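From the methods appendix. Each design record in this collection lists the tokenized structure first, followed by the designed amino acid sequence. Records were kept in a plain field format so they could be parsed without special tools. The example shown here is representative of the layout used throughout.

RECORD:
FOLD TOKENS (205 positions):
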């Protein structure tokens, strides 16, 4: 992270906004029966075979990674990540109460879902937080070893999607891969060490 700091108000607004965008992206993926990588993809996949909601499964899958963030990165980062991930879990489970979509092409859902999730995650990353899951691992590897978070995340996501080959329709799997690529391209192109500099915090903000 840079030597500059966002204000507390900026952090709260950005993390909440990012969580909303991610939850919205998840909603589009759900509408088309698509998957994605990471713990999000695992939660979407398992939710098709159990009575537990996506939000519940997503939160449970991420819990071990919040502990990793606490011990490997910092308690502050872990708490922020817990709040961000919890917000996504709650929002994703309640978006359907506000509007209903009768039909969307899987191709559109893959692109818009990937873009929304990528931009939302980018906002959260830039305010010293994550969504838990493999986000914690890739950010740790980027900070410690200089490995691109986006490229590493893409590799993990594609591996998880490949393991879903026998569990979902091939056409849906193909569009799921497209969505994962779109998401990770957003991160790979925009989340690089030293590229982003925040403005100094304003004590009066």
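DESIGN:
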């Amino acid at each position: 992270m840079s030597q500059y700091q966002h204000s507390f108000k900026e952090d709260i607004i950005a993390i909440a906004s990012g969580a909303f965008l991610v939850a919205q992206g998840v909603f589009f993926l759900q509408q088309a029966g698509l998957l994605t990588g990471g713990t999000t993809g695992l939660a979407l996949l398992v939710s098709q075979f159990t009575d537990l909601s996506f939000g519940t499964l997503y939160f449970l899958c991420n819990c071990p990674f919040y502990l990793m963030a606490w011990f490997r990165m910092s308690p502050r980062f872990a708490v922020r990540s817990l709040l961000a991930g919890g917000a996504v879990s709650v929002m994703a489970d309640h978006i359907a109460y506000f509007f209903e979509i009768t039909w969307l092409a899987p191709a559109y859902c893959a692109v818009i879902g990937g873009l929304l999730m990528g931009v939302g995650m980018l906002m959260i990353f830039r305010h010293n937080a994550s969504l838990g899951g493999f986000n914690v691992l890739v950010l740790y590897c980027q900070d410690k070893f200089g490995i691109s978070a986006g490229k590493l995340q893409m590799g993990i996501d594609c591996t998880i999607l490949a393991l879903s080959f026998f569990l979902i329709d091939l056409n849906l799997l193909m569009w799921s891969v497209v969505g994962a690529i779109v998401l990770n391209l957003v991160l790979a192109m925009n989340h690089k060490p030293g590229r982003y500099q925040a403005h100094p915090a304003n004590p009066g903000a």
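APPENDIX NOTE: Residues 8-32 form the longest helix (25 residues).
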